[in-house]
């Protein structure tokens, strides 16, 4: 999916041709509505899909509403899934029993719960999912399970250079707000210090029905709404939270950090989601330069350094968005120079022929990445939570692809000049014995 933060997934819940891609994109427009008690839903049926995906997306800062409790969103969302009601089964256990998968992803400003199950399991799974999160309750056993598995995730994060770089870039790129705090703390003790009662209070505020964007895609039954849980009276807040923005830092950022892994990352703040054409231009730049298979920079680096790896994406946020590029497997100075030089070169318009080919490839890449029910649900939830549901890539006729087809070389180069001038830079270096400071 485009514009997405590197996912922070709890460990216990890990469970063509061009013509075909364009044909499958020709689907009915999504059905969008509002629950009686508040909250938004979007449904995108696809009768050809054998599965159905259901996502709940909430606006909720990962470190709490005062940004003072790193990891609380991750802990709370995991604990609710692991908590069984009295004489009942936890959501995590139910999804395993029906042969589905459960994903819990936490980002600085939003949190997501997603399930993918066989289509005939939609009704009981939707009821269990909405029942668990519209009226969240955390049991002692669920809390202990969540603390344990989130601690494992914290330990694993020390060996994920992409995530370390991305988190570090955001911490330095923003002086305050959710972006200034990593969604997954680096220490297991950060999770253990959060009391059950505090996690419960956070869950009840964040996961209320009025704060949700619910997305259902795939083989959807006509009467799906009757399977959703009734609104909770104790969470009777009619309005959802506004988007949680972060404040960009005015300082020049060029830092080196000691870590278990090595790599280098560059990041620039970009347009908000309210400017779809500019945001799409940034997606185009990321695809053209940094697509893992065909991007110009990725291809050139592989020829020069066969072990190199590069990952670039524009993360579409409410305000501002962020272009992030991370790289490893080659000397940091060479990686840094290749990334910066390529971005700077985009200030000059591409030739018309090259641009047309690159834009066609870009549109194909986006369409091919949004074909499964799970990826479609992710798109609707992400863009809805960030404040522009209509912009979600949902088919060739959607607003996203209208913006993509309207791009031209001059507009793209002008967008690069406006936003991509001076990046924040973070380099990770390892110590001789792999210790960190």
Keywords:
437 residues, alpha+beta, six-stranded mixed beta sheet, five-stranded mixed beta sheet, 15 helices, 13 strands, 39% helix, disordered N terminus
SSE inventory with pairings:
Layout: H1 18-25, E1 31-34, E2 40-45, E3 51-59, H2 72-82, H3 91-97, E4 101-106, E5 110-118, H4 122-134, H5 140-157, H6 161-173, E6 174-176, H7 188-192, H8 196-206, E7 212-218, E8 247-248, E9 254-259, E10 263-270, H9 276-290, H10 296-304, E11 309-315, E12 321-328, H11 332-345, H12 352-368, H13 373-385, H14 399-405, H15 409-419, E13 424-430
Parallel strand pairs: 2-7, 9-13
Antiparallel strand pairs: 1-2, 3-5, 3-7, 4-5, 6-8, 10-12, 10-13, 11-12
Structure commentary:
This protein is α+β, with helices and mostly antiparallel strands and 437 residues long. The protein is 39% helix and 19% strand. It is built from 15 helices and 13 strands. A 6-stranded mixed beta sheet has the order 1-2-7-3-5-4, sandwiched between helices. Strands 9-13-10-12-11 form a 5-stranded mixed beta sheet, with helices on both faces. Strands 6-8 form a two-stranded antiparallel ribbon. A hairpin with a 5-residue loop joins strand 11 (309-315) and strand 12. The model is unreliable at 1-26 and 231-237 (pLDDT under 50).
């Amino acid at each position: 999916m485009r514009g997405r933060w590197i996912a922070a997934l709890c460990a216990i819940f890990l469970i063509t041709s061009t013509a075909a891609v364009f044909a499958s994109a020709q689907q009915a427009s999504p059905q969008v509505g509002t629950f009686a008690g508040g909250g938004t839903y979007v449904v995108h049926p696809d009768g050809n899909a054998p599965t159905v995906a259901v996502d709940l997306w909430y606006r909720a800062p990962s470190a709490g509403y005062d940004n003072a409790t790193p990891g609380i969103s991750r802990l709370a969302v995991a604990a609710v899934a692991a908590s069984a009601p009295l004489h009942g089964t936890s959501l995590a256990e139910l999804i395993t029993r029906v042969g589905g998968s459960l994903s819990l992803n936490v980002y600085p400003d939003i949190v997501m719960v997603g399930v993918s199950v066989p289509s005939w399991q939609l009704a009981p799974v939707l009821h269990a999912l909405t029942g668990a999160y519209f009226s969240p309750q955390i049991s002692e056993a669920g809390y202990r399970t969540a603390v344990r598995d989130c601690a494992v995730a914290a330990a694993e994060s020390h060996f994920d250079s992409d995530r370390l770089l991305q988190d570090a870039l955001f911490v330095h790129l923003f002086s305050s707000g959710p972006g200034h705090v990593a969604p997954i703390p680096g220490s297991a003790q950060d999770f253990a210090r959060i009391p059950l009662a505090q996690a419960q209070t956070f869950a009840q505020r964040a996961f209320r029905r009025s704060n949700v964007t619910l997305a259902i895609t795939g083989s959807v039954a006509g009467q799906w709404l009757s399977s959703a849980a009734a609104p909770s009276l104790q969470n009777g807040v009619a309005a959802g939270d506004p988007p949680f923005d972060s404040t960009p830092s005015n300082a020049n950022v060029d830092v080196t950090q000691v870590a278990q892994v090595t790599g280098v990352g560059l990041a620039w703040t970009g347009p908000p989601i309210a400017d779809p054409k500019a945001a799409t231009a940034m997606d185009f730049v990321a695809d053209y330069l940094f697509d893992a298979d065909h991007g110009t920079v990725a291809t050139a680096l592989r020829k020069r350094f066969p072990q190199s790896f590069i990952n670039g994406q524009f993360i579409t946020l409410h305000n501002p968005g962020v272009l992030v590029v991370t790289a490893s497997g080659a000397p940091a100075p060479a990686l840094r120079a290749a990334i910066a030089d390529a971005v700077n070169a985009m200030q000059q318009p591409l030739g018309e022929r090259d641009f047309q080919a690159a834009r066609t490839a870009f549109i194909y890449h986006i369409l091919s990445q949004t074909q499964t029910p799970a990826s479609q649900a992710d798109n609707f939830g992400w863009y809805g939570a960030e404040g522009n549901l209509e912009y979600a890539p949902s088919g060739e006729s959607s607003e996203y692809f209208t913006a993509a087809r309207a791009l031209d070389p001059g507009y793209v180069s002008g967008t690069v000049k406006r936003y991509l001038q001076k990046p924040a830079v973070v380099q990770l270096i390892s110590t001789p014995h792999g210790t960190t400071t």
